[in-house]
Amino acid sequence: MNKLALAGLALIGAFGGAEAATTIKIATVAPDGTAWMREMRAGGDAVKKRTDDRVEIKYYPGGVMGDEPAVLRKVKIGQLQGGAFTGGELSQIDKDAQIYSLPFLFKTQDEVDKVRAQLDPLLKKSFEQAGFEAVGISGGGFAYLMSVKDIKNKDDLKAAKVWVPQGDRIAEAGLKAGGVAPIPLPLADVYTSLQTGLIDTVANTPAGAIAFQWHTKLKHMVDLPLTYVVGILVIDKKVLDGLSADDQKAVNEELGAAFLRLEKINRDDNTQARAALQKQGVTIFLPNADEAKSWEAVGETARKELIGQGEITPDMSAALAKALGQARGTAQ
What we know:
Blueprint: H1 2-16, E1 22-28, H2 35-50, E2 55-60, H3 68-76, E3 82-86, H4 109-129, E4 132-147, H5 154-158, E5 163-165, H6 169-177, E6 183-185, H7 190-196, E7 201-204, H8 206-211, E8 220-222, E9 227-236, H9 237-241, H10 245-279, E10 283-285, H11 289-308, H12 314-328
C-alpha cells in the first residue's frame, strides 16, 4: 500500500508540476496571406518554440470573428484574448489609440518616425491603464483618398459618396470639416459597396487597397497624405499576467520583433503597390500648393475640434504638439 501511495504521489507531482499550455486567440480583419499575417504567424511560431509549447498563438484572420466591436466583446468574455487593429478601431477602449490618425497631421515619413519614437511608449502605458498590453505597434503607411470618379478639389469630394470606417470618429470629423457627409460602413462591406455604387470614394494605403481588392474598382488617387495608418496588436493584460515572467518576455519580444519587421515590409509594399496601381490604370493626382494648404487647414480645424471634444486626452495632445514641433524644428 505504501508503494502504491508513493507511486500515486509521484504521478501527481509529474503531471501537477507541469505548466498548463496557454492558447492566446487573436482576431484580425487582415486577410490571410498578407504580410501582416505572415509576420504575425512567424512571431507566433517563435513564441511557441521559445516557450517550449507552453504558449501558442492562434490567429483568426479575414474578419471571421466579426468587426472590431464584436472582437472586443469576445475578448471581454474570454472567447478571444486579443486582436490586431488599426488605431482608430481601438479608440473605443483607449481614445489615444487614434493619435496618429488625426487628419492631415503628418507631411513626411521622417516626421512620423520622430513623433512615434516619443509617443509609442506613452501609448503603450495608456493601453495598460485600459487593461491591455500593446505587444506590437507597426506603421501601415499613409492613407490616401482613392475614388471611382476624378477628385481634384474639395468640391469634387463633397459630391462624392465617401466611405468612413464605422465608429471611426476621427475620420468622420476630418471629412465633415471639409464639408463631406461620409457614409459609415464596416470594413468588410467596402468592396461590395464599391461594386453596388453605395460608395465611390475610400481612403487606404496603396498596399491596403490591393490587399482588400478595392483597387479593381478604383480609378483615381489624390497624392496628399490624408492620415497615417498604424496597426496595433493588443492582448488582454490579465492573460499575459497569468504567464511566467519568461513567457511574458517571449510573447512581448517575439511579437514585438514581428511588428518591427513589418515596418520595413509595409514601406516596401506601399512603394511597390503605388507603382502597381499606376500600371493598372489608376491616375495619381498631385494637388497644387494652394489646394494642399486648404486641405491642411481643414485638418487643423478638425484636429482642434476633436481635441476640444476630448477625443484625445490633454496629456497626449500636449505630447503630440511637443514631438511634432521638435520634428519640424519649431518647438518653443
